[in-house]
Prior knowledge:
Elements lengths: L4 H24 L13 H21 L8 H23 L7 H20 L3 H4 L6 H32 L7 H22 L9
Amino acid sequence: MIRNPSKDQVLWRLTAMLSLIAALVGVFNPGIYSKVVSTEIIPAVFGQDLITIVASSIILLLTIRIKKEDSKKQIVILGILGYLFYAYGIYVIERVYNVLYYFYLAIFGLSFWSIVYGIASIRQEILQKVELSRLIRNISAGFSLFVALVFNALWIIQLLPLIKTGEKIEFLYSINILDLCFIMSTFMISVSWLSRKRDWDCF
C-alpha cells in the first residue's frame, strides 16, 4: 500500500518506543501523576498507560519485516498512531507537567506527522482500486455522520455555559479541543469521501 514503508518505519518505531517507555514509567511509577492529575482521573490514566503498552508493542511487532504489500499491517499501524495522537494530545493539552512531558510532546507530534506522511505515501494505483459496496458505503457514511453530529452537539452545548460565564474547567477540556478540531472533522471528511462515486476521488 505505502510506496516505501522502510522510511515510515523509522517514524513508526520511534513513536512506538517513546510511547512504550512513557507508558511503562507511568505504570511502574504512578506517583509521577500525583501532582498533575486529580485523584478521580488516576484510574483512567493508569488504564490508558496499560492500553498504550499493548498498542506500542503491536506497532513494534508489525514493523518487523513489513513490506509495501502488507496493507493490513500498515492500516493497523496508522490506526494505532491515531490512538497515540489522541491519547498523548490529552496529556499535552491538559499540561501534565511531569518528568515525561517532553516525551508526551514528542509522541503527540510524531504520531501526527507519521499519519500524514503515511497517508501521503499511499500508492495512487492502490487508491484507484479501492471500492466499497453500496451497503457498506451507506452504513459507514451514516455512522460517521451520526457520531460527528452527536459529539459536536454534545461538546458545543457543554461549552456554552463556560463561554457565558468565562469559567475555565481544570481537567478534560482537551477532549473538546481534540474532538471539535480534529476527530469530528475526520468523521465529516469520511462522510464526504463516502458520498462520492469512488471513495478516493479527492486524491
